[in-house]
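To the team - zinc ion complex, inputs and output below.
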Amino acid sequence: MAKCSSCSAPLPANTNRCLYCGTRNDVDLQGRHAYTVVQNPRDRLCPHCEKPLQTINLNPDAAFLIERCPDCFGLFFEPGEVETLLDNSVTHVFDINLQQLDNINKDRYQAKNVVKYIKCPVCRTFMNRSVFGHRSGVIIDRCKNHGIWLDSGEITHLLEWKKAGGQLLHRQKSASQRQKSKTARHTSSGSRKTIDTADYNLEVDALTTLASMIGKLFN
Ligand SMILES: [Zn+2]
Ligand SMILES: [Zn+2]
Ligand SMILES: [Zn+2]
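Output:
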């Protein structure tokens, strides 16, 4: 469990503000990732607070830039960057712990989360809401051109999900789904064969009719 940076009291999941001292904590980055704020003012605005986003660099060795709202600590990732961050942060997961996945989602469930569509910080059009991965419990906002918005706490939630085997489970599920649709395609191509045969039969019928007509003409 994350701790308050100011008084060390444990922070409940998905909460920025310490219940004891009132300090606003960045649950996603503080103590988890070394990062620097890149002085690179951009005209991108937080979809919740309408404040300009900060560009921060998560990798001291190479540029791994993401955008963050200094007020609500929401994060904006360009396409593929969430996956890169997950891959770099959580490795060597070989087991799927379903009980733990359930517990994480229970801990992090927020009843106050109302369904609200928000705008992409780049193009300002409304983003799509979708579940990040199987049993992740995280509903992300995605602009298909510019990237993914994660509210504060959601990247931590995804890191825990991956650690508990969530991504493994997701891959297994999508693989079996692909298998299923493959089987479905086989079945439908099978039925197409039937149609092909039917077409062929029709053609044969037509030829027979034609032949008999020609035969009649010459008889
Ligand atoms: Zn505190
Ligand atoms: Zn914000
Ligand atoms: Zn966009």
